Amino acid sequence: MINEQDWNQEQARLDEVTEKLRARIAELEPEADGLRNQAGDLRKRFWEEVTVNTATDEDFEETFYSIKQQEALLSERERSYRLRFQQWKGLNRLLPSPYFGRIDFSEDGLGFSEQVYIGVSSFVESDGLQFLVYDWRTPIASMYYDHSPGPAFYDTPGGLVSGTMELKRQYQIRDGRLLNVFDTSLTIGDELLQQVLGHGADAQMKTIVATIQKEQNAIIRDDKSRMLIVQGAAGSGKTSAALQRVAYLLYKHRERLKADQIVLFSPNPMFNSYVSTVLPELGEENMQQTTFQEYLEIGLGAGLRPEDPFDQIEYVLSDSSSRAYEARLKGIAYKASAAFLHALRGYAGWLGRSGMRFLGIRFRDRDLIPAERMEAQFYAYDAAINVANRIAMLQEWLLKELSVLEREEREALWVQDELDYLDKDDYAAAFRELHQDRGVFDFAERYEQVQERLQGRSRRDESDFDYAEREEALLRKQVVQEQFKPLRRSVKRLRFIDTTGLYAQLFGGREAYLAMSGETKVPALWDDICEQTREKLGKLELFYEDATPYLYLKELVEGVRTNTEIRHVFVDEGQDYSVFQYEFLKRLFPRARMTVLGDFGQAIFTQATELHGADSPLIRLYGESDTSLIRLVRSYRSTREIVAFARELLPDGREIVPFERSGPKPRLAKTASRQQSAARMAADVAALRDEGYASIAVIAKTAAESAEAYEALRAQGCPSLRLVTKETPTFEKGTLVLPAYLAKGVEFDAVLIYDASEATYGRESERKLFYTACTRAMHRLLLYAAGEWTPFVRALDTSLYDERS
Ligand SMILES: Nc1ncnc2c1ncn2[C@@H]1O[C@H](COP(=O)(O)OP(=O)(O)OP(=O)(O)O)[C@@H](O)[C@H]1O
């Protein structure tokens, strides 16, 4: 705390800034209102202000320019209004708490010290010169996060600025009142961070501007690497840093980067709602938020239905020791691997020589262009041209071929039949169209006459211009054209490629696979994998693990579809994506930089990718020189006791450093049955609520187990319970029951692990899922087991938890 005199000075300054803010807001309000009204008026009277006259070319031109002028005026007013409104909103956001930090910085050679107050946006004195508050994203403010008092420097576009930081101070201000002031020495005040972290969890993520830590700041401000990989322990602030980074990028590049040029891939739709308020809170528009599944569905179109990752994980978690289960697991691992990526590239090369599969074009129950003709045509092209380009050539050829066939088709008998069924209106329409062409006929007529005179030859039969005949020809053309339209459309959409057949062909058997892919080995149980894959495809469905490789192959054959608008791609929970998925994202967004945040300790999917290991495919994606790697090891979410317990569940969890915030040890309760567990849990939930914890989660392993827990707790009279499934669109505060994989990325005041018994978490592959579930807890962690404890708990030192009998 600071002395009384300093305190009074700070309060006086705060009052002064608040007054100035109020004055500026009052000044802006009528201005913004005025501009809004003007813009509204202009829009309403738009057409009154322009004289529309198109009688002559000059009139037309004049009208055109008058519209343009009016448009420019309107957009200028709208722009000014938006700008003023933005300023007005920013100042209003500052009003309750104008700043949270201050540094006094004396730049080398200047001989005086500047007081730099830092808040969520800038506020400049009306003379336009003095900054009363600096936006936290300004270069000078970076020192607040990066340095302790003493020698300090910051980076500017003009180079490094060095000097001495003489003071570093933190404020807690509410509604214009100073609540706390801390002078800090080392990192950003543990005291303030303590307070922030001690609060309850929310249905919505919070911003961390006031307490960003140095290593998080490095993530936020990294602006050099094409690929930024962040490997961080559970609760180390990866998602928080990512969102602050978006806000930073939008600020730094505000002239050229818009929020919709940034896309964030989230683990599930519910997570989207969890993080959706952070950027608006910081005064920025939200980036695009999506899930990989959405992209898969768009890419695959309506023809094939991909399984979602949650169904896949449910299957993986199902307790089975059958051969089919083994094969599927082997298949999942293989289909996510770099080896399979290599195999598909090899396969595309092989297809360049033979084996392409086409779907013949059929028309009225006959083969118009059979698949064999396409194949012959395709392989007649120069083999040096890559497959996708040859497909483009084939497409052009097919369209031409269709034109020829269409013309021939006009003489077919069925066309005559169709003509007989046409009604008067169709004929009338054809007649009208012909009359529109009259000018052409008249010209043709004159041309013929001149030809006749010049060459002294007699005119051709009058019937050349016989309307009746032309009318029928036109109708024939129209009838056939109409029927050929879908054929042309499907050629334009490359539907003549049998992608499903191509993918299925790869799973024909071991020898064929090795020959086509150029690989030298296949995983165990390959025949079973092949059979499962083909069977699924036969139902026009795709396993989740097949969906991205399938799209990848499709693109190797058809050419890549790209989105060049997007400049930044963020992937949260990055460990859950396969190397295929990264490859896919890289190709889809060729002009984007990528930020991947993840934790291999929470890799719950079989296709997980190690983020930072020596041979990480993620580092290879853009190459080592274009990739930066940042590790976060300090965990902020959970109390020291919970982190101490959870980190021991991981083989190399020791490196995780808890933030020094204390609470009760995790509490273990062994029961005789799940029913008894439910009774205990109901009582514990009630007690936790009494203690003031508003956000409580009962975490089960699977969806089925969640439903069971939900019913059991309801039967115990547990109030306001909510069951969360993969369809639940938004997070709400309360007591939630959910499967562990849906709790990814979010946090709760208290977590109750529904059944931490050996029967539930017995397999080594379930370790990370168990760890993920435990690390969702901020303040309290309670575990129950109907029967023997899971081996992961049995292996722990008993000092890490309290046990209840
Ligand atoms: N610098 C910070 N100041 C205040 N709170 C922080 C800070 N860093 C992280 N936190 C808090 O820690 C909690 C965990 O943060 P976050 O969810 O971003 O972590 P994560 O690394 O994405 O976790 P997980 O991998 O478990 O999903 C959040 O409540 C967040 O507000």
Walk me through this protein's architecture.
- With 805 residues, this protein is α/β, with parallel strands linked by helices.
- Among the domains are: 4-94; 415-492, no CATH class; 640-804, P-loop containing nucleotide triphosphate hydrolases (Rossmann fold, 3-Layer(aba) Sandwich).
- It has 30 helices and 26 strands.
- Strands 1, 2, 3, 4, 5, 6 and 7 form a seven-stranded mixed beta sheet that branches.
- Helix 6 crosses helix 7, helix 12 (323-335) crosses helix 22 and helix 16 (413-421) packs across helix 19.
- The radius of gyration is 34 Å and the shape is globular.
- It binds adenosine-5'-triphosphate.
- Adenosine-5'-triphosphate binds at residues 193, 196-197, 206, 208, 211-213, 216, 232, 234-240, 599, 636-637, 745, 747, 775.
- This is RNA polymerase recycling motor HelD.
- Keywords: ATP-binding, Helicase, Hydrolase, Nucleotide-binding.
- ATP binds at residues 232-239.
- Pfam families: UvrD-helicase, UvrD_C_2.
Q: Quickly give the structural class.
A: alpha/beta
As an assembly, this protein is single chain
- Helix count from the secondary structure assignment: 30
- CATH class of the domain at 640-804, named Alpha Beta
Radius of gyration: 34 Å
What's the CATH superfamily of the domain at 640-804, by name? P-loop containing nucleotide triphosphate hydrolases
Terminal-residue CA separation: 45 Å
How much is the average pLDDT?
87
> In the CATH hierarchy, what is the architecture of the domain at 640-804 at level 2?
3-Layer(aba) Sandwich
